[in-house]
Write a structure and sequence with these properties.
The complex is a heterodimer. By secondary structure, chain A is mostly helical. Chain A contains eight helices and seven strands, in the order αββββαααααβααββ. Chain A has helices at residues 2-16, 55-64, 106-115, 123-136, 141-153, 155-159, 201-206, 213-225, and strands at residues 21-23, 26-28, 41-43, 46-48, 178-179, 237-238, 242-244. In chain A, the strands form three sheets. A three-stranded antiparallel beta sheet of chain A has the order 1-4-7, covered by helices on one side. In chain A, α5 (141-153) runs parallel beside α8 (213-225). The longest helix of chain A is centred in the N-terminal third of the chain and has 15 residues, at 2-16. Chain B is α+β, with helices and mostly antiparallel strands. Chain B is built from five helices and nine strands, in the order αβββαβαβαββββα. A seven-stranded mixed beta sheet of chain B has the order 2-1-5-4-3-8-9, with helices on both faces. Chain B has a two-stranded antiparallel sheet with strand order 6-7. The longest helix of chain B has 14 residues, at 85-98. Chain B is globular and about 50 Å long. The N and C termini of chain B lie far apart (57 Å). The relative contact order of chain B is 0.21. The chains are: A mainly alpha, B alpha+beta. Chain B: GO terms for molecular function: metal ion binding. Chain B: Disulfide bonds join 82-86. Chain B: InterPro entries: SCO1/SenC (IPR003782), Thioredoxin-like_sf (IPR036249). Chain B: Cu cation binds at residues 82, 86, 170.
């Protein structure tokens, strides 16, 4: 009996740590050009979590890393609202196990991925994976734009939908939460004080590579990402981790 | 426009004045020069020494940033193969140091952190330090991995981006940290007046009675 229980728990544990998805090498045309001389970026293969990190997975991380628990996190790493909805350091809000974790700062997201021997995806990796996802799902530019605007019309409702942490293909890129990327700061806005590539609205629009059906939706997405600070812990911002391919 | 900028650059270089590389006004098609990113605002209440990553000094020694705790620090981020803004940033740190009252100098550390994990090995940084004739007791040049570099830059409010040619676009920022690693003064831009940084350092040393030790 005990033997069977332990086997069962091993199966459950194996499921909790679902394999990341391989994003094959290829080329991608950034929607917003950070470097006008580089219109096509050559991307090596890498691995990406199929789904955003869930509350249950994040709980496991903070249980093993006390300094990232709600009451222990260093003040410099968050804006005061880190895991604010959690009733305790190791206690999830009721019913949130399978939702994408939010209220996590950039620093916290990085620490989580580091603990999984991963890292946050770069902006290029995330956007490239998004293109790959849209192709896999056979979504037209219009459908993608509709998906995005639907979420942005009520982001809190979307962020509270469950995610399947055991899914085997890339999912939830645009219909759960916004996601941290490693170098999101490249498109930070400075209010009216717009310097080159700082990501003011005007800047992003000027740097857009083309203006198809998907363009405005993508522009909108870049802009909302650009409003974060590394300490931001909003209730609609989560993350997933990337991993290098084994050498 | 390009020619005008080029001519201005030559004039400024010729007169020994650092070119601040402020491209905020120029047209976006000229990417031959590096872009200067404006620095981000930062949290000044808390210590950056919470970052616990490991770094290698140009002397070969391994350390964490918390090693600098207990004395004021002048910190900036550069890369070794940068021939425009970076030597000016190094010199700006030196100018701050040299403007200190003599007795205060030994209480201050100057820390230059490289953006360039690949090229700026500790050995390459040692060469760099030697070229600038900077004593090891005052200067520390740090090599780290991309992960630690990104985290430190973020806390200091230094924006940077690795370009496809291997060089970096970055903010030009010299920061003064107090004995706890909190940001107390930031000098943004190149070849700026040093008074505020010097006054901040003197104040930290006085308030912590470091001269009596």
């Amino acid at each position: 009996m005990y033997k069977w229980l332990s086997v069962l728990s091993m199966v459950v544990a194996a499921q909790a740590a679902a394999e990341p998805v391989i994003i094959p090498a290829g080329e991608y045309k950034p929607a917003v050009l950070l470097d006008e001389t580089v219109e096509v970026v050559v991307m090596p293969a890498f691995k990406l979590d199929a789904a955003p990190v869930t509350y249950a997975q994040y709980l496991e991380f903070v249980s093993e890393n006390e300094k990232w628990q709600r009451d222990n996190i260093a003040a410099i790493f968050h804006d005061g609202n880190y895991l604010k909805s959690w009733p305790g350091n190791e206690e999830l809000p009721a019913g949130f196990e399978s939702k994408a974790v939010t209220q996590v700062s950039w620093f916290a997201a990085r620490a989580y991925c580091d603990a999984q021997s991963g890292r946050l995806p770069t902006l290029d990796e995330w956007e490239y994976a998004s293109n790959y996802y849209l192709q896999q799902q056979n979504l037209s530019d219009k459908e993608y734009a509709q998906m995005l605007f639907a979420r942005n019309s009520n982001p809190t409702a979307y962020s509270k939908q469950d995610v399947d942490a055991n899914i085997e293909h890339l999912e939830y890129m645009h219909n759960r939460v916004n996601e941290w990327v490693e170098d999101y700061q490249l498109l930070l806005t400075n209010g009216d004080n717009n310097d080159l590539l700082a990501g003011s609205c005007g800047d992003s629009a000027r740097f857009m590579a083309d203006f198809g059906d998907a363009s405005y939706a993508t522009f909108f997405r870049y802009q909302s990402r650009s409003n974060y600070r590394p300490q931001s812990t909003t209730s609609t911002l989560g993350f997933r981790c990337a991993y290098d391919m084994e050498k | 426009m390009k020619n005008l900028i080029f001519a201005l650059s030559v004039m400024l270089l010729g007169s020994g004045v650092a070119v601040a590389q402020d491209h905020s006004q120029h047209n976006h098609h000229d990417h031959k020069n590096h872009t200067t990113f404006k620095a981000e605002p930062v949290n000044k209440e808390h210590s950056i020494y919470h970052l616990d990553g490991e770094w290698q000094a140009h002397t070969g020694e391994s350390l964490t940033l918390a090693n600098f705790q207990g004395q004021p620090v002048v910190i900036s981020m550069i890369y070794g193969s940068c021939t425009t803004a970076c030597p000016v940033l190094v010199n700006d740190a030196r100018r701050i140091f040299e403007a200190l009252p003599e007795a205060y100098k030994q209480e201050v550390k100057l820390v230059m952190v490289s953006f360039d994990e690949d090229r700026d090995t500790p050995a390459a940084l040692a060469e760099y330090a030697k070229k600038y004739n900077l004593g090891d007791d005052v200067w520390t040049f740090l090599h780290g991995d991309d992960n630690n570099i990104r985290a430190l830059a973020t806390l200091l409010g230094v924006r940077y981006r690795k370009r496809s040619d291997g060089d970096f676009d970055h903010s030009n920022l010299v920061t003064v940290l107090d004995v706890h690693g909190r940001v107390v003064e930031r000098v943004e831009g190149l070849n700026r007046p040093v008074e505020d940084a010097v006054n901040a350092l003197v104040k930290i040393i006085d308030e912590n009675h470091l001269l009596h030790h």
